[in-house]
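Lab meeting tomorrow. Please check the following:
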Amino acid sequence: MTVSYDGTAYNGFQTQPGKNTVQDQLEHALLRLTGEELKIIASGRTDAGVHAKGQVINFHTHSRIPVERFCLAMNSWLPRDILVWDAKQVEDGFHARKSAKRKTYRYTIRCGKYIDIFRSHFEVHHPAPLCVESMRDGLKQLIGEHDFTSFCSTKTVAQSHVRTIYDAWIECEPMDTELQSFAMHIYLTGNGFLYNMVRIIVGTLIDIGEGKRSSSEIRSILEAKDRSLAGPTAMPHGLMLWKVFYGEEPLRP
């Protein structure tokens, strides 16, 4: 299944004792729908306040509900900030996380005077000007296989910090003349991401956009393998798991 959710009200995706999570809501809906206590497998975790447009989950069920009716049936038991919008029957060996080839994350910043109140859950407001071209120059240097120790939390437990970024780009919406601001979307597609990796990359790009550091510093930050040299961790609500790839689909929308 492919799932979208507004992560504002949740303590992340993964089940945690005493916390409200997206996984809990999905498994509760499945219980109400099928009568089975099912454990779902997700393509990855998202932190508290982080959203998803294309989170992928899988599970095994004995339910006789036709697959083409599963989405509508699931949505009738889900809160309005979680939506299942695609369902497929797959081979028994499919694993939402292990079978994934690539993932794309998107981070959105609203640059300018006023926020857009209808999108404020999904955009981080930055009232000061940002140099988008300098940010693009810095982002390009992250493409390829690198050790991303400098761009992950010191709490990261992954044994290897080497990841490959296949593509990374920035798209800007037209200026909203009433709000005197525009939305900037930062996309990163890779074979995997470390804890807080995208948010630290974005925090570093914001430093570059503000002129606090040069775009050429990205290379030396990578080589240093030192978290203290990168920028701050950007706020969670601008981040969205955009798409998970299981084949060779085009990277860019």
In short: The chain has two domains: 2-86, 102-245.
